[in-house]
């Protein structure tokens, strides 16, 4: 009888604890934000900035955890397998949530296994060249490309860079020679040294060298001028229409995450992005804050779908593989 009463009391206590846990409003503990690349890069920097800025609005801290490897797919996979409770999210981007789907055999579905929270930024990509190229604008560059058909080298450090090179060839009826690199750092070093001709890379990585006069910037490959790099014209303005590719950052949670959690995370993200000081800080990193309509879960869902539909066919037709 004593044992039965003890068991009953234990069950009752467990039931009360479960009821209390269920009744607790979200979030009742810190949220883990997976940054799917090693510390020190732009992804890590943006993750830590947003974690700090969202904390007052969320009422809980956001702990950044770096989970690198396989082009970011290991960290994203961690989120795909996480409990859908709103306590594990990731800072997704073009490479991890679009490009990787065309070059890796992923153990998760980028279109079905994630719940969008909101788009944070659009990340301009710059078409850069060694300082000694005899061209001063986009039209001059196209003339030079055609005069050196097939002999111009372009760094191939990411899938995005290779896609940009393919688009450049298609838009200008030219041909470049892709040179593989393990990352943007070594590629930039060789561009500054004049060992390669062209490089497409995120604005934040290229601007210091452009401002120092050690390389040339021919175009911002975004569809419109960037708040972060207002002095660099678009490819369209330079006479090469349709040469568009831009990175981005957005928050994703595992699929089936409750709407309450998605909405609370979004409600912390949006006012953080509205702070003028954050806009300035992100601009210093070469990033443009996304429009308000894209900051919603629905906006990111539609944007993400359109990105996949645009880039996957092109990448697969071109035979782009993981580097």
Helices, by number, come to 11
Shape: globular
Alpha-carbon distance between the two ends = 68 Å
Instruction: Please report which band the strand proportion falls in: under 5%, 5-15%, 15-25%, 25-35%, 35-45% or over 45%.
Output: 15-25%
The amount of helix comes to 40-55%
**Helix/strand class:** alpha/beta
Q: What is the averaged pLDDT score? A: 91
Helix and strand topology:
Layout: H1 2-23, E1 31-35, H2 42-58, E2 62-66, H3 73-81, E3 88-93, H4 94-103, E4 114-130, H5 138-147, E5 152-156, H6 159-172, E6 176-180, H7 184-192, E7 198-202, H8 203-212, E8 215-220, E9 246-254, H9 259-274, H10 276-284, E10 288-289, H11 297-318
Parallel strand pairs: 1-2, 1-3, 5-6
Antiparallel strand pairs: 3-9, 4-7, 4-8, 4-9, 4-10
Helix pairs in contact: 2-9, 4-11
What are the defining features of this structure?
323 residues, alpha/beta, eight-stranded mixed sheet, 20% strand
Describe this structure in words.
This protein has helices at 2-23, 42-58, 73-81, 94-103, 138-147, 159-172, 184-192, 203-212, 259-274, 276-284, 297-318; strands at 31-35, 62-66, 88-93, 114-130, 152-156, 176-180, 198-202, 215-220, 246-254, 288-289. The protein has 323 residues and is α/β, with parallel strands linked by helices. The strands form two sheets. Strands 1, 2, 3, 4, 7, 8, 9 and 10 form an eight-stranded mixed beta sheet that branches.
